[in-house]
Amino acid sequence: MTTTENPVRNGVDTATLFATLDAVKGNPEIAKFQFRASNRWVSGTHNQSTVHGFYGATQEMTHEQPWTFDADHPAVLVGKDNGPTPVEYVLHALAACLTAGLANIAAARGVNLTEVESTVEGDIDLLGIFGLSDEVRNGFEQIKVSFKVKGDDPEKLRQVVDQSRQRSAVFDIITNRVPVTVEVDAG
Amino acid sequence: MTTTENPVRNGVDTATLFATLDAVKGNPEIAKFQFRASNRWVSGTHNQSTVHGFYGATQEMTHEQPWTFDADHPAVLVGKDNGPTPVEYVLHALAACLTAGLANIAAARGVNLTEVESTVEGDIDLLGIFGLSDEVRNGFEQIKVSFKVKGDDPEKLRQVVDQSRQRSAVFDIITNRVPVTVEVDAG
Asked: Which residues in chain B have Cβ-Cβ distances shorter than 8 Å to A150?
């Protein structure tokens, strides 16, 4: 079966996906995006972010709706448990990025998926953020992602997961360095 | 005013915060945590993560409730916009981590906060994840965090933000390397 005969595979509109890639090849400026989140402190370790606008394809855009997310620390870490911890959102982001890529890449290669599940585990020693050890880092010491994928030939599925890892934005952000600047208006 | 006279500052229970630090000093095993997310593919680039259980303080624990988050790509990136992109969750996580730390550190230092807002902007060139350039990385090229903080003396507020950056788990995860392993069961 060719792509032309089945333009939607795994819920991915492959015709539009390939057309988008062609458009970007013709004008690489389309590929420059800026994503954003705005955050507001509520109380203690509880705070809330909103995600709505972004820049991409040479223009300001918005998602169809704004989304708001609470973050907090659990009681054992002196919070009120009004939401996941910030580091749990990082684990979610990693799983989500690898899974989205997996679906796109499988569709582009003509590989059918029936089920994709994953668990992500991040080990962190809080001696770092507590400032109780100079030898322990603040962030995760390691992260383990476990995928369970069903669909076509297992070897093809493994190759698709591997390619997703190699083309994942969040995997790159976590496993490599991103420069971050922090500005403060305390006026 | 001493901590004893005002154990709750900025919504942070400083008495419990200091007691927790003392407990960890007495038994560093308490500080070993594992956070987790489980993800399920829905269709196309749409998938959903659940955050509930974690390990910490030498035992299995759960948040007071499970939380579920949708991630997707917007239409311009061939998705259905059922939720933020994975990379936007990373920006939220960074803002949330810095803000939670800011509130804790300010409380521990006796610095009062009245308002904390931040915006996080992440620049990404999608030529990387599209596989159209070997010179462009997959993840953010740079991230800019802009804080607006009100409360006590501006110089003290700036110092608190700086200390939060130095003790932030997510700032460390993004600005340094975390080893990530990916396992696949395609059976």
From this structure: 186
